[in-house]
Every structure is written in structure tokens, then in C-alpha cells.
Amino acid sequence: MDQEIPALEGLVCPVPLPHREQILMGHGSGGKMSRDLISRVFLPPFDNPSLGAGDDGGVVEVEIEAQPGEVVKGRLAISTDSHVVWPLFFAGGDIGRLAICGTVNDVSMMGAMPLYLTAGFILEEGLEVSILNQVVASMQTAAAEAGVIIVSGDTKVVQKGKADGLYINTTGFGVLPPAVQIGGAHARTGDVVILSGTIGDHGIAVLEARGELGFETQISSDVAPLNHLVQAMLRASQNLHVLRDPTRGGLATTLNEIAQQSKTSILLQESRIPVKPAVASACEMLGFDPMYIANEGKLVAVVSPEDSEKVLQAMRLTRYGEGAVIIGEVQAAPAGRVLMKTTLGSTRIVDIPSGEILPRIC
Amino acid sequence: MDQEIPALEGLVCPVPLPHREQILMGHGSGGKMSRDLISRVFLPPFDNPSLGAGDDGGVVEVEIEAQPGEVVKGRLAISTDSHVVWPLFFAGGDIGRLAICGTVNDVSMMGAMPLYLTAGFILEEGLEVSILNQVVASMQTAAAEAGVIIVSGDTKVVQKGKADGLYINTTGFGVLPPAVQIGGAHARTGDVVILSGTIGDHGIAVLEARGELGFETQISSDVAPLNHLVQAMLRASQNLHVLRDPTRGGLATTLNEIAQQSKTSILLQESRIPVKPAVASACEMLGFDPMYIANEGKLVAVVSPEDSEKVLQAMRLTRYGEGAVIIGEVQAAPAGRVLMKTTLGSTRIVDIPSGEILPRIC
Questions:
Q1: What is the CATH number of the domain that holds A252?
Q2: A194 and A155 share one domain
Q3: Which of A230, B91, B206, B215 has the fewest CB atoms nearer than 10 Å to its CB?
Q4: For an interface test with A, which of B32, B133, B169, B357 has the most A Cβ atoms less than 10 Å from its Cβ?
């Protein structure tokens, strides 16, 4: 507990000031620091089963009056995300497309079909209206592609220097069919791990847009709405156990979350994880591991082994699942850990990053 | 349309550069500039009946599978708000209480009982964690009072100087009973206009917290969750036509919105509009009109005349409706206008403010 600090006008403080813990960029990384902040600051006061489950969104029950006196219970999947990506535009997308796809995907990863989104804008004084117009047009294109409707909006303006162009919160929800039970805790020993395509594209595209690569790549962000892909998978199998999009913290962080939530181990085959050559070489030059780079149009699925081929086939027939591959399997031990069989034949632990790798990537 | 600007390195531009319209603080005022921005930038691409209605949130239909093959349709009310109030703490509340109450109230004003909220945080690097803890504790207290549950959250961190401590988006929803038809377009000639209590408290409390008053008042913000008040009103009458909370832009802006949406005129009795003496004198010294100052715990109701006494009695039995009074009535003409019978006996037009009166009040 902080002690009272006496007023010491003009004096050098004779005793060390109590440490006042501050928010660091790493608290927004999606890695260990984020989880530490969430578990210390947000979960204790807000504690409830939905939030505590640690999935991409919450599942809630609502009661609908079918006829006077007759109530029907249904489930909704809800997810919220604030988008602060910088710069606002990058190859393959922009903050508007990201804001729609990010929330569409989080709702989809719970097994629900996203229906409605809200959009809350925080605009910085001085932002050019033409930029806002471009972002809004991009949101509408992405919303039309996903088939979602924006039903409520809000606009706030803050003084110059109190934001960075614009920030967008989107919150989405969809109806969860009664049969669907998908969540990070449902991975089982023997399940197959499927990845929908190449990793690292989004993060490298944003880095290039910042001019931080020092060289040019042909990499575009993969930002895309995955709800139609998920619906195709749900039609193909009733044995989808986990769906998750590997955004902040990348594939490594997502798989660790699944291993921890389900108290299983995930064993990956390094040779099977698709990485575009340009992404691989950018990562090599920068000292990054593509396993930790954010994606915005990819998903990981954990599926019963008997259905894995069916699911894979269904995925490959969709626009954003063409590159789907099996990358590993779920094992009993070591529980909570992700292991990787490297191309050299050794096995290494794939850990969660502690702090920030790439800030403001989404 | 902007013309291409040629590169003019080192030269003084020989022709006037095309005007590039920028976002101004007034675009976040809730007044005419806000509405102009919304109608030009957001409504055309996002156009749909729910958003176009211009209410505090959207109403959407969902289909719930009651039994295999049997689908029941229900309505949900949804609303989103980003909160950027500065300073974070003020007499009577803080950004956390405001973030919960603002969205609880917007959902309530559609006639729905808010059930679930999401919370998206944008944190500035360097923010003290102890401040975040206080804000989160305040959110939980307000959520418990309102009886809502926070089911999904998100945390982003931006660099120092790219936010102002913290911003909070909350999005909420509730089930809308089949019989409820409440909205700004439903005011009818002869209806009675009820206000739940004094106006201007929130705005003046925030101004005082900024040290901008130059004198001390005893004014606390009225920020409060109004859902229980609304439920009491709904139990008392099935003839509530409009409910709205007069936040940004104050009572004057809210009543103008109702008059315009319903194509009616609202005639107010100035002598009946309750203003605390301290708020009245602060406004007088600053040259403000309390009619334009934000409230965060008040509502306006437009009710059938035969039910107005019942509604008033029900309101006065609740914590946040004790000071409820009738302040005016709905007339046919001049359509879209708000008029006020002053204490001196004259009648004046109550207009909508154009730009910003008090920035970042919510």
C-alpha cells in the first residue's frame, strides 16, 4: 500500500518515494504482462463465469418472451475490442477493416454467427475528415463482406495530442446455437490442431507501413472476416472443440492459452507451420519469431481426429481457408505447455512472450 | 473533391491549397456540428433503420432456437459509448462510474432493462495502476447498483502522449419486451414532458474539478444508473412515448432532438425547470445556460396526459426520481421546434448549440 507522501516543496526527498506502479506498453501486448494486469486489476472486481473463462468474448443467456407468459432462453456471444493500430493505413488494410474484422472474428471464434456491431470513435482534433471518410468506407466494405450491420455508434473528440488520429472500439454479438460448445477449455488429448494459413503477415505489413523494416516486402496484412469460414467448419463437423484467432502475441500465445485453459499439451510440427518466404526473411533480419507475430485473418482449430479431414476439406473450399493445414496435436502432458518438434528433430518449449513485441499492432 | 497537390519542395505554393476539412472539438459536442458529421460521414455508408432512427441506441431482432426447428424472435436494445471525460475524477463520480451509467442509461432510454456490458480500455503508458484500480472499483460499484454484468473486456496501451490517462468504451444491451415502443419519434400532441430532477449538475461539477470555475461550489455530478427508475415508470404506465437522458448538449439539445424526430413542438415552462441555486449562479458567472449543460443522472419522459400523474408518482418513489416534475407539453406547431415560456411571460425559441460548449464532459 502506498504511504502518504509529505509535501516537500523545494527539498530533495530524504527517503525513497514509494514505488508507484505504472502502465507500460507491455501491458497491452497480449502476453504475460497483459494477463497479469487483467488477473490483478480487472478480474477480481468484475469476476463472473463469462469473463473468467478467458475466451475471446463472453457467452450470456437471455430470456425472450415468445408469447405472453412464455419465455424462451437463448445464448448470445459478445465481444469487444478497441483498435489503436498505428499507422492507420497499411498494405492490405486499415484501422477500419481491422476494427470490423477483429470483432467479427472474436464472435466467430465462440462458434456464433456475428450479426450486429456497434462502433465507438475517438477522434483527435485536427484529423482530416477525408481520412475518416476512407476509414468509414473501409469499415462498410468489411461489414458488407462479413454480413454484419452496425446498429449503434458514438463519436467523441479529444484535443490535439490526446489521441493518435483515431481509435475505434467495436463490439459485436451473435446468437449461439444450443448445440455449440466451443472454448479454449475444450481441447482433448488426441485432438488435431489445424491452422487456416500462413502466419505473421499482418505484423510484418504494419511494420513495413511504419518504415521500420528498412527494406521493402510484398507482404500485405491478412486482415479478413472469418465468419463464413467458421460457418463452413461448423457445417462440416460437430466436433470442433476450440476456435481461436492468433492476433496479439501470435500463434505461440494463442496455443499457450488453449493448453493452459484445457490443461493439455500441444505438440507442433515446425515443418508444417506455413510462413511466407518474405515474412520469414523479414523476421530473420529483425530477430523476430513469426510464431509471435500478430495475424488478423487466421484461425486455429482444435478438432476431434476423426473429423479433421472433413474440417480441412471444408476450410479449403473457402476464401480465407485455402491454405489450411494440420500443424500438430493435443497430448496429455506436459499440461499447460506448447512443444514444437523442430525441423532439426529436437523438441523445444514454445513459451508466451512477457512484454511487448510490436506495440499497437491492432 | 480534393485536387492532387503537386510536390513543391522549397517553393512557396503559387496557388491556394485546397481546403482540407479537419475534425474540430465541436464535432464531439452533441450539437449541430456532431449531427452534421454523423449525417455526412457515418450515416451514408452505415445506413440502416436502426442507426437512422437517431435514438440512444439500436434495436435489433434476434432469432433464438427454442427447440430444434422452432425459432422465436426477440428484440434487443444495444448502445455504445466511449468515455473521454477529463479530469478522471470529479465530485460525485469518475470516468468509471460514468462509463457504466452512461451505457446503462442509453439502453434504459429505449425501454429495455440493461443486462450485460462490455468494457474496452485504452490506457496511456505511464498511467498509475492505482488510478486504474480506483476506476475499475468504481465501475464495479456502479455495475452492482445497476445490476449489470461485465461479460467481455479489452485492454490496449498507447504511448505516453497518445491518450489522456485512460479512455473507456462501454457497450450494453438488454432485452426489449414485445409491448415496449419507445423512441424519439413517438411524442404526440397533448403529451406531457416530465424531467426527473435538477439540470446542469454534472457539467458544473466537472468544470469545478478542472479548476475552471475560479470559485468553489458544493455541486456534485448527478451521474447515476437510471434503469430502476425506468422500470418503475414502465410498471406505472404503458403510455410512455419517449425516454431520453439529456447528456451532451443538455436538456435543450435532447428536447430539440425529440421535437425533430417526432415532428412536433415542445413548449416548456421556464419556472418549472429545476436548477440548483449553486448551478444557476455558476452558470450566470460563466455566461452559460443550464439548459445546455450535460447531465448524467437525469431523464426526460414524454407521456400521455392521462398517465402523467401515475408516472410522476412512480418516479418520486425512486432514488433518482425524487425531484421529478412536469416541465412542459407537446404541441403540433411549430413542428421540430422547442419553445419556452419564460418567467417574464414571453416565449422564446430554445435552439440547439452549434459547436462545443464544454469539451470532454463525458
A1: 3.90.650.10
A2: no
A3: B215
A4: B169
pLDDT of residue A29: 82
Question: For B194-204, what is each residue's pLDDT tens digit?
Answer: 999 999 999 99
Q: How far is CA B245 from the centre of its chain?
A: 5
CB contact under 8 A, B118 and A152: no
- pLDDT at residue number A8: 36
Query: Can you give the C-alpha Rg of chain A in angstroms?
Result: 22
Binning chain B into helix, strand and coil, the percentages to the nearest 5 are 35, 25, 40
The answer to whether residue B188 neighbours chain A at the CB level (below 8 Å) is no
CA angle A264, A269, A273 (to 5 degrees): 110
What whole-number distance in Å separates Cα of residue A236 and Cα of residue A306? Answer: 12
- Provide the pLDDT confidence category of residue B107 given band limits of 50, 70 and 90: very high
Grid coordinates representing A44? 477480481
Instruction: Give the residue from B260, B301, B266, B185 showing the smallest Cα distance to B35.
Output: B260
CATH of the domain at B60: 3.30.1330.10
- Residues with Cβ < 8 Å from B18, sequence gap 6 or more? B2, B3, B5
Q: Please tell me the distance in Å from A50's CA to the nearest CA on chain B.
A: 6
* A257 shares a domain with A318: yes
Give me chain B's average pLDDT, please.
91
Domain boundary among B126, B147, B176: B176
Contacts of A360 in chain B (CB under 8 A): 156, 158-159
pLDDT at position B4 is: 37
Q: Which three cell numbers mark A298?
A: 487466421
- CB < 8 Å from A in window 37-66 of B: 37-38, 41-42, 45-46, 48, 50-51, 57-60, 62-66
State the virtual CA torsion across A265, A77, A309, A344 in degrees, nearest 10: -30
Residue spans of alpha helices (H) in chain A = 32-37, 43-46, 49-52, 95-108, 129-146, 201-209, 227-236, 250-262, 277-286, 308-316
The residue among B125, B153, B176 that closes a domain is B176
Q: Supply B258's cell numbers.
A: 425529440
The pTM for the full model equals 0.93
| Look-up of cell digits 492468433 | A246
Q: Quote the number of domains for chain A.
A: 2
**Neighbour-count burial of A83, counting CB atoms closer than 10 A to its CB (0-12 exposed, 13-18 middle, 19+ buried):** buried
Is B190 in the same domain as B316?
Answer: yes
Cα(A318)–Cα(A295) distance, rounded to whole angstroms?
18
- Domain, as residue range, for A127: 53-176
- Please, what sign has the CA dihedral across residues A321, A327, A332, A333? negative
Position B29 scores a pLDDT of 82
Q: Residue A241 and residue A256: Cα distance in Å, rounded? A: 16
Tell me how close the Cα of B354 comes to any Cα of chain A, in angstroms: 15
C-alpha cell, A177: 446455437
- B231 and B253: one domain? yes
Distances (CA, A) of B346 to A218, B207, B269, B353: 70, 31, 10, 21
| Residue B138 and residue B222 in one domain | no
Tell me, what's the ipTM?
A: 0.93
Q: Cell numbers for B224, please give them.
A: 447515476
> Which residue's C-alpha cell is 419556452?
B340
The DSSP code sequence of B34-80 is: HHHHIIIIIHHHH--HHHHT-SSSEEEEEEEEEETTEEEEEEEEEEE
Cβ contacts of A28 within 8 Å, gap of 6 or more: A34, A248, A356, A359, A360, B123, B155, B156, B157, B158
Question: The sheet that has A70-83: what strands, in order across it?
Answer: A58-67, A70-83, A166-176, A113-124, A149-158
Put simply, the answer to whether A82 touches B2 (Cβ < 8 Å) is no
**CA nearest B24 in A: which residue?**
A125
Predicted confidence at residue B19, as pLDDT, reads: 67
